[in-house]
Write a structure and sequence with these properties.
The structure holds two protein chains of two kinds. By secondary structure, chain A is of the alpha/beta class. Chain A contains eleven helices and four strands, in the order αααααββααααββαα. Chain B starts with 14 loop residues before the first helix and ends in a 12-residue tail after the last helix. Classes of the chains: A alpha/beta, B mainly alpha. Chains A and B meet through α1, α2, α3, α7 and α8 of A and α1, α2, α3 and α4 of B.
Chain lengths: ~200, ~120
């Protein structure tokens, strides 16, 4: 006989349910809207959006100029964006400059462009070390950089989020925009990886 | 530190974390509090944990800070803590009674097939 013993509900789950219940009671939110937001972020938003932006920038120089001038407006051209990001500053990697993004205080991140941030992005270790010893940390994360390459670390804050425009890998001249987008990883857009062909 | 290449969407670690994230988004969209105010609360919660010698080592701890920030913001907006605790108590009571109902089912009635087609 199978016994159905409901698992203990963690305090965070009870607290979340209580807060939602109170806010519904106060008329601030309705649960259907909360459902919609969860579904949106779990099913529709993710780094593939950012990868489309990068691939477009690689293939369309005018778009790239607009992206570097006003990231949010350019992303909106591809239907990406949302109230969670006020300003998006796009930083371009070159042969001599590598950019990486961190949020030293909490977890500011371009959610509407890249989706839910990875666990390590929020960790104390990443947030503290990226602004102290980025070269060593990047090497530990699998990205050894030539000592001649300058590393610029950008600290995300609530008002400004950053997106790294990685270098287009050599040998991809014949690929279509969609095929290029397939190569672009979330980590490359945070600046802890490069795009490989 | 695991940073494997991954273009699939990262997901929320637990259903409650997803819900807590969505509540903050919904409330800020409704204009009841500003997203910046929440972020300040989150920064404070993370700072308090880190300055006490702890660290954000995993997703669970991070979203704990999220809940703490949301709780503080609710209090700052004038929702009495006692009211929140009362709602929590009623949720726990409901969960307890559901568990007991299950126990009763299991002990008093042997399992039943959901459908039986009679012999002909």
């Amino acid at each position: 006989m199978t016994q159905h013993v409901p698992p203990e509900k963690p305090w965070q789950a009870v607290r979340t349910e209580a807060i939602e219940s109170l806010l519904v009671e106060l008329g601030v939110i309705d649960s259907a809207r909360v459902d919609e937001i969860v579904k949106h972020y779990e099913e529709r938003v993710g780094p593939k959006g950012g990868a489309r932006v990068v691939a477009r920038a690689w293939t369309d120089p005018a778009f790239k100029q607009r992206l570097l001038a006003d990231g949010l407006a350019a992303c909106a051209e591809l239907g990406l964006g949302g109230p969670e990001t006020e300003k998006l500053h796009v930083v371009e990697n070159t042969a001599t400059v590598h950019n990486a993004v961190v949020c030293t205080l909490c977890s500011c991140y371009p959610w509407p462009i890249l989706g839910v941030p990875p666990a390590w992005y929020k960790s104390s270790a990443y947030r503290s070390r990226m602004v102290r010893e980025p070269r060593r940390l990047l090497a530990e994360m699998g990205l050894p950089l030539d000592p001649a390459v300058e590393i610029r670390v950008w600290d995300s804050v609530s008002e400004i989020r950053y997106l790294v425009l990685p270098e287009r890998p050599a040998g991809t001249e014949s690929l279509t925009e969609d095929e290029l987008a397939e190569l672009v990883s979330r980590d490359a857009m945070i600046g802890v990886a490069k795009v490989a062909a | 530190m695991n940073t494997a290449f991954d273009t699939a969407p990262a997901t929320f670690p637990t259903p409650w974390a997803a819900r807590a994230f969505a509540i903050v988004t919904a409330v800020s969209q409704a204009g009841w509090f500003d997203l910046k105010a929440f972020q300040q609360g989150l920064i404070a919660a993370i700072h308090a944990r880190e300055s006490a010698g702890g660290c954000i080592a995993d997703e669970a701890i991070y979203y704990d800070c999220w809940i703490e920030a949301l709780t503080t913001l609710l209090r700052d907006k004038g929702v009495p803590q006692a009211r929140l605790l009362a709602v929590e108590a009623s949720i726990r009571q409901r969960l307890l009674s559901l568990a007991h109902d299950h126990d009763d089912d299991d002990h008093d009635h042997p399992p039943q097939p959901v459908f039986v087609e009679s012999t002909q």
